[in-house]
Structure formats: structure tokens, C-alpha cells
Amino acid sequence: MGRLDGSVIEPVGADLVALAQAYALDVTVFPHSSLPVVFGLDLPPVLFVARAERGGPVVGFVGLRAKDDVLEICGLAVDPAHRRTGLGRALLKAALRSARQRGFARVALQVSTGNAAAIVLYESEGFRRAARLAGFYSPQRFPDGGDAWRMVRRARL
Ligand SMILES: CC(C)(COP(=O)(O)OP(=O)(O)OC[C@H]1O[C@@H](n2cnc3c(N)ncnc32)[C@H](O)[C@@H]1OP(=O)(O)O)[C@@H](O)C(=O)NCCC(=O)NCCS
Fold this sequence. Notes:
CATH class: Alpha Beta
Number of strands: 7
CATH superfamily: Gcn5-related N-acetyltransferase (GNAT)
Oligomer: single chain
Order of helices and strands: EHEEEHEHEE
Structural class: alpha+beta
Largest sheet: 7 strands, mixed
Helix content: 10-25%
Bound molecules: coenzyme A
Number of domains: 1
CATH architecture: 3-Layer(aba) Sandwich
């Protein structure tokens, strides 16, 4: 697959089909679902989705929520069949753009210490490891024991 040819990143509001597709991807990709915490908050947009082509199904998402002056990334995922084409980075950049437009000072997230692919992506976009959170995830579901990195960057570098 080419890199980002014709792909689309867009905010999701009340598009129930897109929401259902994002939820389906969420439960497939993560041992713990990441999206439910995103909804019920009055701070749109809380979810951006990626489509490989305009009008096609959702193949990626990034979920967001606000905590004081920090925009938290709750979940970032791309369908395995569409990885390494730039969608993960494009979703992350959409989240960073949204943080700047909405005046957040920082953007933060938690990522499993064993998730090398995601850590490389986050570091390449300016995130730094701020703290190691022991047992943050369920150790039964994460082979490396469930530790997470808290990663943070300023919304504007
Ligand atoms: C992490 C994830 C979202 C990346 O999505 P993606 O669409 O494949 O990412 P991109 O194609 O935009 O790649 C961005 C960069 O991430 C890094 N990267 C992505 N996958 C990688 C891998 N398997 N190994 C090493 N580096 C990787 C690379 O630096 C890559 O840049 P490059 O392609 O120019 O080398 C995707 O692998 C995923 O959904 N993983 C499962 C869910 C997850 O772990 N989410 C993050 C939890 S906080």
C-alpha cells in the first residue's frame, strides 16, 4: 500500500457508523478498550478517525480527553492491514493540531513499556518519557508486567 494515498483523517461527531467501526477496531487491537472513556465529555472533537480512502471504512482512530490544561490521548490505533502507511502519525498530528487550536498547554499519554512501535512514533513527534507507571495495565494481559510510560510534550514545540 502506498503512503497516505487518498487517505482521510477527520473528526467524528454523531456518525454512528464511524463510531461503531472505531469501537470494533478498539476491542480488536487493545487488551483494554480505550474508547469508552472518551465519550460523555462535552469537549468536541474527542475522536478523529482515519479512512484509507474517502467514504471507506474506519481503519484507525485517536481518542482524546481533556484534563485541566492537558489533552490526554486515550487511544491510538490503526488496523493491522493498514499499518506502516503513515496513518498512525497522521492521527497523532491531528491530535496535536487539535490541542493547539483548543489552547491546551501539553499533550500526554500512557503507553505500555513493551510497545516499541508506538514509543518510536511518539518520540519522533516530540514526546518524552516523564514517568514509569508500575503495574499501570493488567499484568495478566501484558507479557512485560503491565508497566507504562507516561509520555508528555508541549502542545507547541
Ligand atoms: C502504533 C500504531 C498506531 C502505529 O500506526 P501506523 O499507522 O503503523 O504508524 P505510521 O505508519 O504512521 O508509522 C509512524 C512511525 O512509527 C514507527 N513505527 C510504526 N510501526 C512500527 C514498528 N512495527 N516497528 C518500529 N517502528 C514502528 C516508525 O517510526 C514509523 O515511521 P516510519 O514508517 O517513517 O519509519 C499501530 O502500530 C497500532 O495500531 N498499534 C496497536 C495499538 C497501539 O499500540 N497503539 C498505541 C498505544 S498507546
